[in-house]
Structures are given as C-alpha cells and as structure tokens.
Give the backbone structure.
Amino acid sequence: MSRPLRMALIGGGLGSFIGKIHQMGAALGAGIDLVAGSFSSDPERSRAAGASYGVTTDRCYADHDALFAGEAARDDGIDLVAIATPNHLHLPAALAAIKAGVHIMSDKPATATLAEALDLQAALRQGTSLYALSYSYSGYPMVREARARVAAGEIGTVRKVVVTYQQGWLSAPLEQNNARAAWRTDRSKSGVGGASADIGVHAFHLAEYVSGQRVAELLGDARGLVSGRALDDDCNALLHFDNGASGVLVVSQIAFGERNGLSIQVFGDAGALHWAFDTADVLTMINGDGSTVILRPMSPGLLSSTPLAPGLGNGLIVPFAVLYRDFAAAIGGDMTRIGSVLPGIDEGVRSMRFIERVVDSSANPSGWTTLA
C-alpha cells in the first residue's frame, strides 16, 4: 500500500495509558495514522480523548457501530481498528469490525469467555478481516531471539519452563475507588478470570511462545485472596507440555512491592535461557559446558533479526511497534507472520482455554485437567 494505513481506536479514553501505547507503537513500527475512534461511551469524554490523540471531532464516534458506519461512508476511511476496552466489550467490537471488513488488533485476552473466543474464531474464518492480539512481550527482540534459539536446538530438548508474572498493585481493595481496578475485579466486565485473565494469559502465552511447546495439561490454584474479591488475584499452575517437559506458572497481583515482575526460564538438556522484563534488552544463555553468554540486540550472530533499532529501551512502545510492524506486513500480504511470530485468534482461543481450565481446576480440585 502506497499510503500510510489508517487506524481507529475503540476505548483508550481519558486517563488510559494503553491507548497512547497503541498510537505510538503503530506510528513508530509501521507509520500508521490514528484518525478516528470511539474512545468513551460518554460523547463529551470521547471528544476530549480524541483531541488528545489529535483526532478531529467529526471522527470521534459515540460507539463502535457509529464508528464503522461513519468510516465506511468516507473515501479516507479506516483500514484497521485497535480494541483497548474492558474484556466484555472485545467480542462485540471485533464482530462489528469483521462485518465492516476492517482488520483488528485486539488487547488481550481475546474475549471474556472461551465460548466467546470460539465464536470470534468462527466469525473470522467466515470474514476477510485479519486479527492479531497484543501479547506485547512477544514483540521484544530478545524474546524472539530466545524463541529462535530454542527452535534451533541450542539448548537441546526442553525439559522445564518456569514463568512468573507478579504485580502488587491490587494488594488492597483498590477497586472501591479506582476504575482500572474496578472492571478487572468485576466478573461482568473481566469475564471468568481476574489476574489469570489480566496478566496470567501473558505468562501462559510466553511459556508456549518461547519454548515452542504446547501445554497439554495443568493443575491450577487460582484464588481471590483480598477479602470480598470475586475473581482471582493470585494464580499458580503446574504445567505438563506436550513433549513431556514440566512447567511452573506463578502469577499474582497481590505481591507487595512487585511492579511488573515478568520473567521466563527455559531449561533444556544442553543449556538454558533466561529473560526478564526489567532487563528486556538482555537474554542470558547458559551453555552445556556451564559458560554464560549475555546477548543484547547489538550482539553479533543473533539468530533472529533485530526488529527495531537497538537501544530504544525496555518500555512497552518497542514491542507494540514490532507487533504493529508485523501486522502491517500481514495486511500488505505477508501472511507468514500471523500465528508464527505474531499472535492471532488461535493463540487467543488457547489463552481463553487456559483461563477457564485454571479457574475450574482451582474450584474443582480433582487433579490434572487437559487443555484439549
């Protein structure tokens, strides 16, 4: 396409940080212009949010139906939409986009429930819209390098995967006076899972993405530890992968002092790889002889190409830029990206199955449960 792609944003209203991350990532990674949106159900707040994004008043819409109708009537209408709403609004917005023939970049999780994710998968197969999920950590260059090295057999056969994602911001009942906390702890808006849906899906996806193995079964323990909380705020699971490897997943939003403590370790029979969010530009590789190699985006001999210029930092804009660059390439015809390096609806369905299985395993402790 000779012109820049045009994007709309659903959600990401005043006070939202993720909307700005989408805008900046799309612009940096693929030169995509944010030109329209339905930023809030309150028209005045939607217009105010639109102004903060540089969107003209006539392209700030009351809801997603008005957005797709209005943009379809324009010669310069949108090519794709980013969905950055609470979970329960993901499915209706995505279905409206499919009906309009607009491509979709959705925040995780794909939907509020597994049944909804399966409905979305079926709708996408019937339509023409491309679909990607913003599992942002899969966009970091060193995460992709870890994936490539595992796939190349550099650590041998995967034996164990340990992934942790711990935050402390919900250690107190913040939902009583904080909108971001309120919808994440509300079953009608978050869906079946709490922390498991908010950050557990990141950990689950990262475990499969880097190891190249699929979780075959799990034994879960997802609980709400803050008094009165209906959804889980702490989630732990033992994992069995399809190649026989073992795994441990630890997720919490009540871990005092933790900000965004995401890390993954993959152990093979000939070496290991360690990566952590706090040092996202660093990948530690332990060789079979015990020697340790520190890899960075500027290191020689990287197996995977560095997606962006090195030294851009560890913030979230970099991986979003990489995901949007992949998505723009897919829209341009490179269909090798979705479902390989770029998460799509199949990964979305697996993640929703993980949430439901880990919550059910905790509520009905009858042993291991499959992810089939």
About this structure: The first strand starts at residue 6 and ends at 11. Residues 28 and 321 are 6 Å apart (CA to CA). The two ends are 40 Å apart (CA to CA). The mean pLDDT is 95.
